[in-house]
Amino acid sequence: MGALGDLSRRKLIPALYNLSMKGMFGPEHLILGVDVNKEMDDRGFKALVQTLIKDIGPATGDESIPDWCDRCLAYQSLAARSTEDYAGLAMRISRLEK
After folding, report:
1. Between the N and C ends of the chain, which has fewer C-beta atoms within 10 Å?
2. Could you read off the pLDDT of 72-81 as tens digits, one per residue?
3. How many CA atoms lie within 13 A of 67 on its CB side?
4. What is the DSSP letter of 37?
């Protein structure tokens, strides 16, 4: 299961958004989506999630969706599933935590 998989698209992403809107994660939370799609980047992931939430989630038409996507989402590819990819993921997590 990756950030771009069917389960994430239909269930996980809308649920994370709704929990976030209810204040369940705290004000400084960040969600890092990880998948094997090397063509995806932060901007594309945020746009995809925004569309998914608007189309599928119970928050249809909610004006806070774009702001939430910009503040709370990031994406990292593990396309080759190599040692370098995992090192890059570790570096990305470290940068995001600061």
Report:
1. C
2. 999 999 987 8
3. 7
4. -
